[in-house]
From TrEMBL:
Record-given protein name: Acyl--CoA ligase
Superkingdom of this protein's organism: Bacteria
SUPFAM superfamilies found in the cross-reference section: Acetyl-CoA synthetase-like
Domain AMP-binding enzyme C-terminal: 370-443
Listed PANTHER family: LONG-CHAIN-FATTY-ACID--COA LIGASE (PTHR43767), NONRIBOSOMAL PEPTIDE SYNTHASE PES1 (EUROFUNG)-RELATED (PTHR43767:SF1)
InterPro entries xref list: AMP-bd_C (IPR025110), AMP-bd_C_sf (IPR045851), AMP-binding_CS (IPR020845), AMP-dep_synth/lig_dom (IPR000873), ANL_N_sf (IPR042099), ATP-dep_AMP-bd_enzyme (IPR050237)
Keywords tagged on the record: Ligase
Domain AMP-dependent synthetase/ligase: 6-324
A Pfam family that the UniProt record links to this protein: AMP-binding
Molecular function per GO: acid-thiol ligase activity
Organism: Nocardioides antri
Taxon lineage: Bacteria, Bacillati, Actinomycetota, Actinomycetes, Propionibacteriales
Amino acid sequence: MIELLRRAAERDSASVAMIAENGTWTYAALADEAETLAHGLQDAGLERFAIVSNDIPLVVALLAASSLVGAEACVYAPDISPAELDRQAAAFAHDVVVSDRTDLGDPSVAVVRPADLRKAGPALDVLPERRPLLVLTTGSTGTPKGVRHEWSRQLARMESARDGSGQVWLLAYGPQQFAGLQVLIHVLGTGATLVAPSVRRPQAVLDLIHEHRVDHISATPTFWRFLLAEFRADDRPVPELRQITLGGEAAPGSLLEELRATFPAARVSHIYAGSEFGSTGSVRDGVDGLPASLLEESDDAEVSLKIVDGELWVRSTAGMLGYHGEDDRPAGEWWPTGDLVEVVGDRIAFRGRKTDVINVGGVKVHPLPVEERVAAVPGVRIARVYGRANPLVGAVVAVDVVTDEGVDERELKSAVRTACADLPRPWQPRSIQVVQELEMKENKVIRGGVAEG
């Protein structure tokens, strides 16, 4: 990470790296901050530590500092509760957390303040041979796993990256998310500028997008649906976006069409990535799913895909070393992604996560195709399809919808039933509820599990 900051600073020491609530940071200033923190890490003998902060420039500087001295950093959720902090610190053997938060109570780990790590010292010009990084998985449910990465693998693609000077990106992911890390690496590796809001919700970033003339945004499909609704309700002209990137969830065709119609000058890309296997690259043809041609890549390709029993498997040169507490995995190992797919024509179509499948009387129902039908109904802002417990068949399909303002609830429910009428009976929603908001985690809809009642 440190080499990205230094390279951009050498090109233009005054170029702006980040715009945050606490001010604007140039690449040169961020590189200097990282080096002073690196000296502090060395003086304190910190070889492994967690980071808890919503100050994105600070998080970046700490990550860069750790990569400069070979310490293993791990970013926790900025809003983590004291109890969860203790639990995760125990799970991942963290004795020290670097944090600027003052509300952590009396945690079981030592809390080091960033100010105490700022130390002067000679230039650190030689990068260590080993530069580890620990990333926590951020699935919508369950306990996170610690994924061990190596900085050199994560930064390899940036060696040939194009110059992004003049581009202004929005950070819509949390710094603890693998997707957030990928955005940071891309922006800093191309010399672009990142607008880093303290609150990463669609309604909270609208003014920042206009104020700083953001023209590149990477976010989940769920985030994009809500952001489109905010743009529609706003009196100002929609911003002139140049790049739209979607990731973290399947991107339905109806959403891609709406994005193209709203931002005709923007390039629309979909990235398929995971904490364990890294990024498989981006698809820019504007069609949902992945090209089936990716299944035919040669054995020496950077990323290879295959389908095993309906599940997508990935092999990547940017994949993880292994999970925390486990030995390194063999190089070139295939990884099950948990994503169920189907080859339809020349596309790999996503059907949902294995954990999201609804068993309706022995029939396996995938929520995503039903969700896409419902989301395409006029007046539906976003929908969530899930299983609701049923004593006769085990579970039935249920749907929660968030509607646009002024929509007639009875008419909308009728329209949803009509939209799903030609689906097999087990796939048709038996429960339709209009709700104010959906249960989400990190701007992704939570679908897994079966609800009672």
